[in-house]
Write the structure tokens for this entry.
Amino acid sequence: MKPGRIVKVAGPLVVADNMTNTKIYDVVRVSEMKLMGEVIEMRGDEASIQVYEETGGLGVGAPVYPTGEALSVELGPGLIEPIYDGVQRPLNIIMDQAGNRITRGIDIPGLSRDAKWDFKPSVKPGDKVEEGDVLGTVQETVLVLHRVMVPPGVRGTVKKIESGEHVVTDRIAVIEDDNGKDIDITMITRWPVRTPRPYKEKVMPTEPLSTGQRVIDAFFPITKGGTACVPGPFGSGKTVVQHQLAKWADAQIIVYVGCGERGNEMTDVLIEFPQLTDPHSGEPLMLRTILIANTSNMPVAAREASVYTGITLAEYYRDMGYSVALMADSTSRWAEAMREMSGRLEEMPGEEGYPAYLGTRIAEFYERAGKVVCLGKDNRIGALSVIGAVSPPGGDLSDPVVQATLRVVRVFWSLEDKLAYRRHFPAISWLTSYSLYVPNLEEYLLKEYGKEWIDNVESALAILQEEAELEEIVRLVGLDALSPDKRLIMETAKSIREDFLHQNAFDDVDTYSSFEKMVKLMELVLLFHSLAEEALNAGVPVVDIALLPERERIARAKFTPEDKLDEFEKIKDEIRKAFKDLKEKVLAEA
Amino acid sequence: MIKEYNTVREIVGPLMLVEEVEGVKYEELAEIELPNGDLRNGRVLEVNRDRALIQLLEGVIGVNVRETKVRFKGKGMELDVAEDILGRVFDGQGRPIDKGPKIIPEKRLDINSSPINPFARDYPSEFIQTGLSTIDGLNTLVRGQKLPIFSGSGLPHAKMAAQIARQARVLGVEEEFAVVFAAMGITFEEAQFFIQDFQKTGAIERSVLFVNLANDPAIERISTPRFALTAAEYLAFEKDMHVLVILTDMTNYCEALREVSAARQEVPGRRGYPGYLYTDLSSIYERAGRIRGKKGSITQIPVLSMPEDDKTHPIPDLTGYITEGQLVLSRAMHRRGIYPPVDVLQSLSRLKDKGIGEGKTREDHSDVFNQLFAAYARGLEARELEVILGEAALSDIDRIFYRFAEDFERRYIAQEETEDRGIELTLDTGWELMASLPTTELKRIRVAFLEKYLSRFKEKVEEKKEVS
């Protein structure tokens, strides 16, 4: 195809003419440096191009080469080892080739062409297959069995199937379609990132995504296939929450997109994750994690692409029938990248300078989450949960990105700097956060953990709510002015906050809490409360209850290792005994 | 041959539009010759067919449309570097102004370096002792970190930054270090304060200064931090030095950026600052760090004054989202005569956890930090109560914490400008203060440490009580 010609350069935006044979959203290569760019607007024969690399030194007249293809990623085995930038270039290989800094014009395929994979076929010649059917499998890592599927749009009869060691570009099958045409299948497929991958149908998510974080799992749960957002000002612990979810969520694949954030944070993930073991399998967490890093100083247009790259890789594993969780930190940086490009295109701005289509883009992105029946005859179920961090300026929730996000997500974890200053982590506010999945999950929770758990959660939330109201009074007249039963509420609320909700991400034991442990811990706190209520009625002074040494046992209970959960029964007995003694003492005095 | 254009069409604010140009590149350096023969520098902000939009670094006074000549230099802005830059003073565009000899360049570096590959970064974890307890004990600085000071007009951020530059060192090792100092739009007196302080202590020999004063061209400030960081990268990653970079004042930098954005009639973001302020700031802050296999490091201490002490103003807000923590200065504490007036509750060092503990500072550091922090927070709550009800109305335990907060501010946070407090002393002072609290309240400290350390200081407190 004939190259176009640059007529304008303004930051990451380049305008070229002579571009009639290009389609909108096609990838182009700009100048002799072959910088990667994407067509985002067309007027007559002029195309506006957002360039994914620095544009310094570009001038009028330089060529622009069309590729005829939309921005796409490569899908196939080998996605899990490397760490990618926003347009799926492996950063580890860039380092081998270009040194410590990311120089321009580097073109490295997303999947290694040399790595050999042991392909095990699961169909035989003569089998009828349709799109989504599993042709065979490859053990990608110890944790991930990669299913090689018939690409969307292909159906027919298997004519030939290979087995054994192959590189991704080798032909591993030949499918004869209904017109008698042979189609070669390799382990690699390409998919345009802005187009959602197809599935048979969406179903309602009804299973919780266990995260190991008590405040989330107990009060504001997210489902497998659900969406959540974590807005909060800087310093409130957004990134720690995201990292905790990436570490402990019981999804089979984690996709972590560092979008416009700190370089050192990605390094932290890179160093820490290989050392952590998955509590469910005992293998290193890295073996199920895909990392995409587009730090804040990397080109802004590639930041815009990074969330799409991430979600396309996530959808690919969902299509294999896995439960996948995607964390995007932070979607505000993605929105800002959109704003920057929109400004350069001189579009009429909406709120705060953001483009008018901000809400649409955000909604489209989160709607790619969900629990689905995948393509393929076996009707396997896959789920993709999306958790987006939002960084509103000054923590102000009226920010357009927060508001647009809240309209589409079903879980809202509100991080408050007030809590963070008090070093209450995770700083998720129990008063303003919500989860709309609670009714979806009721059936599942009832079956697994019984009615008592659901009741306990409700009463714990009610106690916290009452505490917030009482606090106003305490601030004016002091704690001593409260009636004994109200003082007990304050004490129990404190216990819920400090002994149950507060969770130390840096403590080896407390960092992850299984559902079972969480249920037991809650029982402990509320057992104390109900016994204390009884004791109060029997005339025990509230001060005596507050001073019971058994409270220290409750405070320490969260540090009980997962394999010693029977400790909890002992603590319960001790509490019962302590109250019995208290009551007897009061009776004796009377 | 370099072509010369005399086709200037428009001069608006700091921007100049030149027509009928050929072959001009984005971000290229331009030289502008005024009718009186003066030379000025400019940078290409946009090329559009045969027109180039140039940002003039040194203001537009004296430029006219008819006689001004423009030459494009065919390269971006560069800094001449050599080891001789140590001990020298440059203007905001990297030209020596200290009457010293010419720099014989070892090489020329583009002032916009490419981003560090996150995969090539090494995680910062080496403790830097600054000799200030509020930093060492509570908001620990590590090599390769970027930790800004959020200040306000009239607060002693300059004093504090100079003290850090003077005292910062890594324990137990002698390594080559250097200070790179970039002044953007600060007053002559403030700049002089730094220069004299560096001269007095001899630190000047290991320093490189880039100075753009308040009366220097405002647009030049946009390049100043980039020149400074280019020098820092050269010293750190090619000469194996540990470089501390002080950038003051980032607020002036952002205002210069806003001026250019307004002149270009861009769609403004919050408070008139351009929508790309975050991206732009990150291209400065993210140049801090360590690289695998390199000995040197760049640690950044940007200083910014928060307009109206408002932390949610776009400049501190966006900075806080990029940097690894912040040191917030408090006007209230400054008024009470506490130096350094660090607001402990609002300050934070995100990399603290990797830089403290056994082998780095001391085994008990993390516990001491948590306990001091919690106790001080509780003390401040008691102080609020005291304001309403008076000290007599406080409960016994509240009164203890109330007094603790006072002591903590006077003895732990406050120190002399010249005092270089070692980490051992910082930690011990913490223990001494905690010894005045009931032992049952020290819940955040592991029992083993309580036994090992507390007894020593409990006795001291008891002795004092007896004496009084």
